[in-house]
Amino acid sequence: MFLDEILCRLFPEIPSHVIFLSNLIILFGILGPFGYLFLLKPYRRLIAEYRRTTDALNLAERFSRATLDALPDHIAILDARGKILAVNRGWRRFAEENGPLTANVNEGADYFAVCLAAQGEDAPTAAEFAAGIQAVLRGEQKYFSLEYPCHSPEKQRWFSGRVTLLQDKAEPRVVVSHSNITARKLVEEALRQSENIYRAVFETGGNAMLFIAEDGTILRTNSQFTQLTGYPRQEVDGMMNWRSFILPGDMDTMENHNRELWTKVDGSPVNAEIRFVNREGKIRYALMSACRILGTRQSIVSLTDYTVRRAMTQALHENQTKLFRQHEELHQLFQQVEVIKKEWEQTLDCLEDIVVLTDTQGRVRRCNQALLKITGKDYTEALGASLADLLGAMETSVEPSEEGVTFFHPATKRHYLLRTYSYWGGENFPSGNVITFQDITRIRSISRDLAQANRALEAKGRELQHAYDELKAGQQRILQQEKMASLGQLAAGVAHEINNPLGYISSNLGTLAKYLARLAEFVSFQKALIEQRFGKVAELDEKHRTLKIDHILGDIPLLLSESLEGAGRVKKIVQDLKSFSRSDDEDPVLADLEQCLESTLSIVWNEIKYKAELVRDYEKLPRLLCHPLQLGQVFMNLLVNAAQAIDKHGIIKISTRHDGDRVSVAISDTGCGIAPEHLPKLFDPFFTTKEVGKGTGLGLSIAYEIVKKHGGEIQVESTPGIGSTFTLRLPLTRPATQEAEG
């Protein structure tokens, strides 16, 4: 072993079998045949070490082979002549899937020959890849890579080929790998298409678009932004901040919008109406919609020019003010027509008789519910259908009658008398016929028993009339409630629309007051400074007096104060309108009657202020369990009636009192009063002493029903020529019957 160590140190790269032969020759020459005994033990150990090394190399080779086979890439090792020395499982699988290539690309094949044999669209790529392999083998470059398409008949695929030099002292070898990058290429193509779509939308959209960084820097704009602001892109993109366009007075509001935008985590937009200054220094209005781009620190903003539309809106508002009275008259007329239309439609639907309007060909144009009941059709199916076909499908029988044609319907056992009336719609509407089917079943029965049942018939007629009157009254009450609900919805919409301009009017008036105070201070300072430097200037004093500057500066704060007070009053009226318009179909709540009265007064004040002086005599009341909006409707009816009862000018007094477990509200007026003969019928439906078209006779009837529903009562005291007093008495706790009903 001493000789082994000497030879290993002198010749570190000498093979082990050479060392073994050298030791054998030296020992044999020195010791003769006994030299083999000295070699036996150390070389047995050497052989064992050699076996362990061989096993480790085999294990490493198997591990490397398993690793290469587990990779999805296609990997092969080529020698300097392009011969395939080894391939992994992915390479073999690809060769098997591509059929004809199986025998040409496995171990022992000439890879250069395979590349040069490529045809069609793949030939240039294969030749380039073969040249790259040869360049790496010649040492001209360390590695070579190429992305190329693979034009298979079934589908388009892309691969990334890479050639790497394999270090070997004997001869150069290369490792060739191919990776399937089809998924990546498809994603890149989709991204390119998305980018093109985004660019088209961004550049050709109708609104001004801009990308903004979190610090406010404008990163990118489109051509519409240049048209809107007058600034070219090269002066804006990446250079300007959005804050440079905003008016100083709007900066706080815009900062609030900006904070709201960057605190949103769901990507929902922030919408607002903004003002900005264009390149010419003019103020423009725009509707802004800003949205964060999730996953980035950027936002996209869309601006719609609102300047012209806003000017048109202001002009429209002025025209609306001029036409307000005419609109009110038309609105009242429309309501009357709508009420009459609904009354007739619902009245016809309440009839048991069939009423049908047909055209000249006998097709149904309109009908009531009675026809739909006996035919089993809905309204849309009946419209346009032939009336003869509808009646023919009912299995009716026709009987002669002295009065006309009589139909009998076996399913309902009803008799109908048919009558036809010509209908002329005028020059602009089609003509036709009105056909009625009068239900004469009861009449026929009564006619047979007329002699012995005359009294019963009269009593039944009275009952039917009473039921009809009650039905009609209930119908009118429902119509009135629907009308009030529609009025409430209209009031809510008007209140919402008024709130928006009222907000910035109040804000602008407040800002204007601050600005004018600063201007007044500056004028005073300027005048004092001129007098200090140059003494009194006669022309300046004369101009100051001529223009009445002192009077103007003193009068402006008063004007602004009155304007702000008016805006505040409008805001109060709008709030009361919104409160009045809310639905009151929920359970009763504890409410403040004084607040309910004041809200109602805000709504009807326009009816009162020109005709009466209002006197409030309120006593502290406990909160009342009620429907406050329904009571507001009662107060509104009573206050409007009180104002209409006053001819020129009078007094309306409202008094509230608390008496034990009840509260009372009295509304008095100094109007014309109520005649004694009218007092018993005052709360009957449709009773009115007003002129035709000025009253429906339902206001006090509905008020009576609402108070009764609350477990209370209404009392009336009136003297003709002196005035009237309506007193409402309501319990603090509602009886169980009222709670169950309402």
What attributes characterize this protein structure?
alpha+beta; 5-stranded antiparallel β-sheet; single chain; 6-stranded antiparallel β-sheet; 742 residues
What does this structure look like?
By secondary structure, the protein is α+β, with helices and mostly antiparallel strands. The strands form five sheets. Strands 12-11-16-15-14-13 form a six-stranded antiparallel sheet. Strands 2-1-5-4-3 form a five-stranded antiparallel sheet, with helices on both faces. Strand 4 and strand 5 (173-180) form a beta hairpin. The mean pLDDT is 77.
Q: What's the rounded overall pLDDT mean?
A: 77
Structural class: alpha+beta
Q: Give the low-pLDDT segments.
A: none
Strand order of the largest sheet: 12-11-16-15-14-13
| Shape by Cα distribution | extended
Count of helical segments? 23
- What's the alpha carbon Rg, rounded to whole Å? 50 Å
